[in-house]
Structures are given as structure tokens and as C-alpha cells.
Amino acid sequence: MNRPRLALMFNAFWINQAGMSGGDRRCIEIFRRIGSQFDIRVHTSRDGKQALAQALPGAAFDLPSEPDEASNILLAYLARTRRSARILCTTPPDTVYASSDFFPVVVPCWRLKRQHPSVRWVQCIFHVYPPWWRRPGNPVRNFLAATAQKISFRLIKRQAD
Q1: Could you count the other beta carbons within 10 Å of the beta carbon of residue 120?
Q2: What pLDDT is stored for residue 23 in this prediction?
Q3: What torsion, rounded to 10 degrees, do the Cα atoms 110, 112, 117, 120 define?
Q4: C-beta separation of 60 from 40 below 8 A
Q5: Each residue of 107-121: pLDDT tens digit?
Q6: Which one of 6, 8, 16, 102 is CB 3.0 to 4.6 Å from 12, fit for a cystine?
Q7: What SS3 string covers 11-52?
Q8: In a 10 Å sphere around its CB, with 0-12 CB exposed, 13-18 middle and 19+ buried, how is residue 33 labelled?
Q9: CA distances from 135 to 21, 142, 150 (A)
Q10: Is the sign of the CA dihedral 38, 42, 47, 50 positive or negative?
């Protein structure tokens, strides 16, 4: 019996688990328990593979070659987004599970769903940013993060199952 093909989008993970979201942690726990029911391919970074490899011993990993994340996380995110979108659309899974609403997770799923409408897209959202001007921290970073999340939400509402 063929197991369903599942792509796990763990693409926003970075720098020694410092960037692990609650959605990433939940993804690990869910697929640690039910992962054997699927043929799993994980889209992530090198650090993401380290976090997932033990929990998902049978999974295959797609790791983009990317710039040094510590020096430029934006370039690393863009590299992951582009590569994952290309791989997903070339070899589409039956289902894609998105662990967060960060753009390197959402954009490849959105592109996949546009090109392959029969693929199921399961999207997780666990945190909605407050207005950027109310959020503590760097206002420029807050504005960019809130704007990116709004764009992700629009893509999710249009295509996710």
C-alpha cells in the first residue's frame, strides 16, 4: 500500500532553535506521533533538519544552499522560499502542511496550490501580530513583520484548504 505523500513546510526555522515557533514545535509533536503513516519530505534549513531528524527518522529533507543565516536572515528566507516553491511544483505531494504563517512557508504552498489545485494545503496560524506601532521593539522590523504577515494571510485565505 502506498502511503500518502506529505510535504512539511518547516522553512522559517533558523539558528539553533532560537527561531522555533510554537507551530514548529507542534508540527514536530504531531508528526512524531503520526509520521509513519506518510511518505514525508521536509522543506527546511540545516538547523531545521537537526531539530526534526530524530523525531522523523524516515523523512527525506530538502535543504536549500543558502547564505549564512546569522549574517542575513532575509536572503536565507528568500533562498528557501524560491527553492521550496520550485521543488514542490516539480514533484507535488498529496498534502502540504505549513507549520507557520511566515512567508518562506506560505509562498511555496500558495504557488503549489495555484499550479496543482488538487493538492491539499493545511495551514497553521498560532500568533497574529498586534499593530506594528503597538508592538514593543524595533518599529521598522515590526512594520515589516506585520506587513509580511498580512500578505501571508491574503495568500492563505485565497488558496489554503
Answers
A1: 14
A2: 80
A3: -80
A4: yes
A5: 999 999 999 999 999
A6: 102
A7: CCCCCCCCCCCHHHHHHHHHHHHHHHHCEEEEECCHHHHHHH
A8: exposed
A9: 18, 7, 15
A10: positive
CA–CA gap between residue 120 and residue 12 (Å, rounded): 20
Task: Identify the H or E element spanning 156.
Answer: helix 139-159
Q: Which amino acid is at 127?
A: H
Question: Distance (Å, rounded) from C-alpha 65 to C-alpha 133?
Answer: 35
The pLDDT of residue 17 is above 70: no
What is the rounded average pLDDT of the residues 66-77?
Answer: 65
Which grid cell is 107? 509562498
Cell 509513519: give the residue.
36
pLDDT reading at 1 higher than 70: no
pTM of the model: 0.87
